[in-house]
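Reopening: structure tokens for the magnesium ion complex, inputs below.
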Amino acid sequence: MPRIHSLPPSVVTKIAAGEVIERPASVVKELLENAVDAGSTRIDIDLDAGGTDLIRVVDDGCGIVPEDLALAFAPHATSKLRDADDLFKIATMGFRGEALASIAGVSKVTLQSRQPDQPTGAELRSDGGALSAVRPWNGAAGTRVEVRHLFYNVPVRKKFLKSVATELGHVCEAVTRLALANPQLHLVLRHNGKLVYEIPGTAGLRDRIALFFTGEVRDGLYELDSGPGPLRLTGFIADPKCDRGNAKLQYLFVNGRWFRDRSVAHALQESYRGLLMTGRYSIGFLFLTVPPDRVDVNVHPTKAEVRFQENSVIYSLVRATVKGRLMRENLIPQLQMPVGEATGADAGAFSPRREVAERTVAPWERGGEEPNPLTPFPKREGGTGPVGFFASPTRPAFQERLPFGAPTAEPVFPAPVAVAPPEATATPPPLTATAPFPLPPAGTALQVHDAYLVLETKDGMLVIDQHALHERILFEQLRRRMRDGKLEVQRLLIPEPIDLPAEQAALVLEAAGPLRELGLEVSDFGGNTVLLSSYPTLLGRRPPHEIFQGVVDYLLTKERPPTAEAMLHDLTATMACKAAVKAGDRLTPEEIAYLLHLRQLAEDSHHCPHGRPTSLLFSRHELDKQFRRI
Ligand code: ADP
Ligand code: MG
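Re-run output (same inputs, fresh job):
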């Protein structure tokens, strides 16, 4: 075993650089942060070969005193911090005094700087950390840093660099983050002499988002503001229809600093639960303001992560603000029909969207077919159009099939007194427990294909997926009852033993807590047997072991154990789905009326718990456009 010895400074620097400077984008990030800390209003970035040959960052900030130039290259030398206490009230991007030293250790750097109120400035060069003499320099006020031949003296690192395009991509990402965090900053990025981005200082956050992520994203944005207070969340989220296949468009900032955080990202994503399909991600640009003494930014080498003093408070703030904002929006997806495509029967390519549109047209209106006098579209007195309520007196009543929707047996969700089109009443009508369901007024709803309800609203024509809507309603009722502790549970006289493979039995027992909330009481019987001693009454006649298998199947599909909240949500959705009316079920007028009534009471009637829309709006405007009326 060799003896212990201190490492020479050049090695120390390279070790430090190993953590902070991974690739050209890391250099750009550090230099940009220094320029921001210097109070710059404009920053120009020039790269050659993805930044591997040259990175030049020029700012118009406060500059550096000539005598301090050499210190700027020294490790742990900074103007931003005095003592350890300062670490807990950091208001600058940098504070460790490490970046320039690290960059200088693995490249050839020229640092030139002049303070705005001084006639001359100074210049200093570093070659792998070896400093030249300080020379006068008379360039523009501000600081100019040129980094050439990155990793020329660390061949191993150089080998890890990717293609020019990839490295440029990383630099663009660093520039994007900084540009979003500093919306007054004029930023110019050039690569091999060609302009990549020019973002004027007048371009606000919305414009910047449009510039980096297209106008489509900008147009889908909703502004957020949790309101004044020591903790504040501002920024933008996007409509669920602008979802993405990954979380890359979830940008988080705290006190002007980009950071990544699983908990905050989770809060954002959770707020969209039920609005997005599985595997889809929301778009969000979240800006947190937190008193500096309540967030520790000194926990990660590149400061990409932070630690909040009150993680759960931040989580709730994000969740409540985003969710509240989404609730305020009308999230019915608008059906857009391609203009100029549907010009007739021979209109060329068939699109599924057109099929949806055509299905809402009565058969005879498509031409060729005679109106059928027996067709279930009776013209009603005073009605404005075809109204179809298919009589089916022999079927069991909808309420019976609704495990907890029956108005007489169900005091919590009693029947409506009157039914009006959903848009006609802003607040739900008063309820009494015994009122019958009157027929909906003419023109209210028409069931088509035993699967969809079509109704007129003030904005156009609404097509509702009866299964998706009912599923959503049941889901919300279930959830409300669980929350209020009003979920009826059926105790089994003799608990039912269920044999499972060992790992499945373990999975089920691990999930015993959330399962109990759902009314499923499980306990360990020993061996690989699990005892089921209760189940939710609302699941009615379905055999308990069948419910149980659904639960096990769900648990098995999860790579990692789901959080209790996620599991409750998913299992509730599964149960609601099983109990809801299906496509193919013909509904009586009363059932339609009841369903539409419940729709008004639903918190989110626009999406089923799996994120599929429950309704599509064919707007009046779109219809007029398609029929060439406008
Ligand atoms: P830190 O930013 O953590 O202080 P750096 O190594 O990045 O450490 O920079 C060291 C010091 O050099 C800074 O504290 C700052 O005083 C000075 N400096 C670096 N870049 C600039 C710049 N663009 N304009 C003004 N001062 C700068
Ligand atoms: Mg710095």
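Residues 164-181 form the longest helix (18 residues). DSSP finds 18 helices and 23 strands in the chain. Marking as resolved unless the reporter disagrees.
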